[in-house]
Amino acid sequence: MKRIFGCLLLLMSFAIATMDAQQILTLDSCRTLAVQNNWQLRMADEEVEAARYERKAAHTAYLPKISATGAYFHNQKELSLLDGGQKRALNQAGTNVQKALQEAFGKMLPVEPSLATWLQPLASLDLAEPLNAVGHSVVDALRTDTRNVWLGAVSLTQPVYAGGKIRAYNQMAHSAELLAWKQREVVLQSLVLEVDEAYWRVVSLAGKVALARSFHQMVQALECDMQKMIAAGVATRADGLAVEVRLNEAELALLQADDGLAMSRMALCQLCGLPLESVVQLADESLDSLPLSKSLAEVDTALASVRRPELQSLALVSDIYEKKIALARADFLPDVALTANYVVSNPSLYNGFEQKFKGMWNVGVLLNIPLFQWGEGKYKVRAARAEARRVRQQWMEARQLVSLQVRQAVHRLYEARQRLVVSQRNVDKAEDNLYSARKGFQEGVIPATRVLEAQTAWISARSARLDAQIDVRLADAYLRRAVGILE
After folding, report:
1. Residue 362 and residue 417 share a domain
2. Is 355 exposed, middle or buried (0-12, 13-18, 19+ CB in 10 A)?
């Protein structure tokens, strides 16, 4: 008795642990998990972040730019303001003057001996050394010493007019950020639709497994009754073999349904970011009749044109290409900018050539006017306009395709609802037929083959109704996706 009680406790604890390990997920919780764990959506978020910073970077084009530049050059030769002859003449200026005076005295004394007393003191003066020193100092003062040159500059540039390029660039960056958001919304809506498909696929296969198990139990019960009838001599061996064949088919169908359900659960777990071996149970699996979602009260293709992120993305792309026309035109319009600089150099040129860092500031206006480019600007503007028209036509074509998708989705939902009504009537008739067949079989007036046919018709009707219910839910999801509604 104690051993039996211990076994019961062990079984109860195992059942409780199994219930705790299972996760019951609704459609909304599956969507939430998928949004939190989807890699494509994360990449779309990064694209939105990049577009936001691109917009901020484009806004800085309105502001002044400050830059610093530095350079060092080592030259093989230095710049020289004097040639070699001039340097030699200055270095020997005193010697040349002294020599010229002596030659002049030598010519004048024989002609005017009376001047000898006056010129003799001048002839004895030594002018070579001091004048040579003066020449040396002049040569040294004019030396540039530009073999090692240091340059530095700090510049400020403020755009004043750029032909509308900066404004167009900012507008394009703003549209690009909105485009990134719309692309993210496209990824999000596609993900939601994919999760819905995977969710209802699991629900459908879970229902198919339950039906296959019920069918297997019914055939198994019929096979048991048939064996008793064969033993009693009221049924033939052929009737028993027919039931056994149908039982084997039911076991195979159950096995295939279980395998398909396991694969579908793994696909749903992958979409939701859960481990593939997770034991999940969906809230709609145990429902015999799936509740219908609230359909759209009124479907308008104009609503799809407003809400579909694909059309909104194409409209933004069209706007970007319109701004590219302004950019192409701005490249061939005048540019005006204010500039201020502070320049420093060594050697400096502001007090001769000095081996010191000295600088100066300057301000000015920069004006660039393109004059003639052989029609390049005209051709580029026309090319940009052609691209803008192409994108506009692409947007118009997409509107027509979206309108077609909406109409097809409406028709598909209507057809699915009609098929659900018909399948429900078939289920009612199949249940009545199965009840009559069982009753007749028990009374011995209906053979086992008729019971098998009734069971097959019942399982087919129930399966068709389940497919119709899933089709209604999926058709509604497709219609909402076509219109651009995320709920």
Report:
1. no
2. exposed
The pairing of beta strand 148-161 with beta strand 358-368: unpaired
The CATH number that applies at residue 348 is 2.20.200
The pLDDT confidence band at residue 279, using thresholds 50, 70 and 90, is confident
CB 419 within 8 A of CB 478: no
Q: Is it the case that residue 261 has pLDDT exceeding 80?
A: yes
Q: How many domains does the chain have?
A: 3
Are 198 and 231 in a shared domain? Answer: yes
Q: Please report, for residues 24, 414, 468, the alpha-carbon distance to residue 287 in angstroms, rounded to integers and kept in the order given.
A: 14, 23, 15
d(CA 183, CA 178): 9
Q: Quick: pLDDT tens for 178-234.
A: 999 999 999 999 999 999 999 999 999 998 998 899 888 888 888 887 787 777 776
Specify whether the CB–CB gap between 332 and 377 falls below 8 A: yes
Structure tokens given for 462? 């129930």
Residue from 344, 3, 366, 334 nearest 157 by CA: 366
Same domain, 43 and 115: no
Whether residues 155 and 287 share a domain: the answer is: no
Instruction: Compute the distance between CA of residue 472 and CA of residue 138 in angstroms, rounded to an integer.
Output: 104
Looking at residue 404, its amino acid is L
Domain that includes residue 49, residue range: 23-63+164-332+373-483
Query: Are 196 and 247 members of one domain?
Result: yes
Per-residue pLDDT at 472 exceeds 80: yes
Q: What are the angstrom distances between the C-alpha of 25 and each of 223, 262, 304, 310, 415?
A: 38, 16, 30, 30, 29
Identify the bridge partners of residue 368 per DSSP, sorted by sequence position.
335
Please compute the mean of the pLDDT values over residues 355-375 and round it to a whole number. 89
Tell whether 126 and 157 lie within a shared domain. no
Lowest mean pLDDT among 16-20, 119-123, 146-150, 188-192: 16-20
Q: Rounded to 5 degrees, what angle do the CA atoms 60, 61, 62 make?
A: 85
Residue 181 belongs to a domain with what CATH number? 1.20.1600.10
Question: What six digits make up the tokens of 332?
Answer: 């061939």
Torsion 462-466-472-475 (CA) sign: negative
Q: Is 345 helix (H, G, I), strand (E, B) or coil?
A: strand
> Mean pLDDT, to the nearest integer, of 410-416?
90
